[in-house]
Amino acid sequence: MTDFDDIVRTNLTGVTRSIDAALPSLRATGGIAVVISSYAGWTFLPDAGVAYGASKAALSMLTRTLNQQEARHGVRACHLCPSDTNTGFLRQRKNIPGAEARAKMLSPDDVGRAIMFVLASPAHVRIDELVISPVSQT
Asked: Strand, helix or coil at 75?
């Protein structure tokens, strides 16, 4: 159960506490919270595992609740769900993808551009959820 607790503590509790800490500033500025989730937070991925999938899916409800409760303060939140991204995080997998598979994945720059798209949206626009994946993903 320790692995489960650690994953939920990182993926859900950590995000929740970070947003809670930032909320006064977000309210004061009408800021945007970009909640970096996962493709596994948007759809079921059998290899993701229960703790990872559940904690990332819970971020969708966190984002929706934040948008509903904080809209009156101009706060906006986006549940960003990138697919596999070619980063060092892949080394934590049981089956580490090879070079050919990594070449087809999203790059960190792809995810960065998606974040900038959300942050550059006009103050009257809220992007509730954004899912990005490579063309080759099935």
From this structure: coil
Per the confidence metrics, is the pTM higher than 0.90? Answer: yes
Taking the C-alpha atoms of residue 121 and residue 35, their distance in angstroms, rounded to an integer, is 16
Residue pair 34/79 in contact (Cβ under 8 Å)? The answer is no
- Residue-range domains of the chain with CATH: 2-132 (3.40.50.720)
Edge-to-edge strands, sheet with 32-36: 32-36, 76-82, 129-132
Residue 81: which H helix or E strand, with range?
strand 76-82
In this prediction, residue 21 has a pLDDT band, given cuts at 50, 70 and 90, of: very high
